[in-house]
Amino acid sequence: EAEVAQSPRYKITEKSQAVAFWCDPISGHATLYWYRQILGQGPELLVQFQDESVVDDSQLPKDRFSAERLKGVDSTLKIQPAELGDSAMYLCASSPRDGYFSGNTIYFGEGSWLTVV
Amino acid sequence: GQNIDQPTEMTATEGAIVQINCTYQTSGFNGLFWYQQHAGEAPTFLSYNVLDGLEEKGRFSSFLSRSKGYSYLLLKELQMKDSASYLCAHMDSNYQLIWGAGTKLIIKP
User: Fold this and answer.
1) Could you tell me which residues come within 8 angstroms of residue A73 by beta carbon, excluding any fewer than 6 positions away?
2) Suppose B61 and one of A56, B9, B74, B81 were both cysteines; which one would form an S-S bond, judging by CB atoms 3.0 to 4.6 Å apart?
3) Helices (H), B46-94
4) How many Å separate Cα A37 from the centre of its chain?
5) Is a pLDDT exceeding 50 seen at residue B5?
6) B67 vs B70: CA distance, rounded Å
7) In order along chain A (117 residues), what is the average pLDDT of each group of 10 residues?
8) Of chain A residues 63-82, which have a CB less than 8 A from chain B?
9) Does the beta carbon of A112 lie under 8 angstroms from any beta carbon of chain B?
């Protein structure tokens, strides 16, 4: 069964350092999402791509976060500089299309745990 | 604005039935989702309702009332492995998921 791949699974970094997360969606999926989930809360959308274009990045803290999906396939989320409050799980998800939704077509990766010390 | 509410924590006994409620407010609606999330893991899809009524899938059922902005997830014959957080999310008019904070379900023997 196809899966959304994410790496690294766990990352510990010092504050003010740079950190990057990578996501490879399921082949053929046009829509890619990056979420941040703080312990005890629901996921928060950071950025949504449709192919290589950003559809929504209104919740992305653009002074320190950046995301790209240059060829419309895999994607990288970067944080620079990292702050203590960035400690969270970063989830990548993908879906085969946008504009029409049939329920169980958003697939999540296993997530990347970030601890900033 | 958009808002979604669910209880923070619930406790139930193995073998019993539990109902987790979710209320939402939205300007546009394209479906209501329930996801299960075990500690330290990604959410996994449980159910999707876009029309009013009850959807049954084995031990899990989900209900939706669009006019009331209300949904519930019903878990029957509870097992210890059902201990997890249950996340309610609705899809808005822009096809984006708006998530609740999740309900932590604790199953006791």
Assistant:
1) A24, A25
2) B74
3) none
4) 10
5) yes
6) 8
7) 90 97 94 92 92 93 95 95 96 77 74 96
8) none
9) no
Whether the per-residue pLDDT at B1 is higher than 60: the answer is: no
Q: Which residue of A has its CA nearest to B103?
A: A40
Q: Identify the H or E element spanning A64.
A: none
Distance of alpha carbon B2 from alpha carbon A59, whole angstroms: 15
Per the CB < 8 Å rule, is B31 touching A103? yes
Question: Which residues in chain B have their CB less than 8 angstroms from residue A103's CB?
Answer: 31, 33, 45, 48, 50
pLDDT in tens, A89-98: 999 999 886 5
B interface residues, A as partner, C-beta within 8 Å = 30-31, 33, 40-45, 48, 50, 87, 89, 91, 94-97, 99-102
Does pLDDT of B22 surpass 70? yes
Measure the CA–CA gap between A13 and A84, rounded to whole angstroms. Answer: 10
B103 contact partners, CB below 8 Å, separation of at least 6? B6, B7, B8, B9, B10, B20, B85, B86, B87, B88
CB contacts < 8 A, A to B, total 46
The chain-wide mean pLDDT, for chain B, equals 92
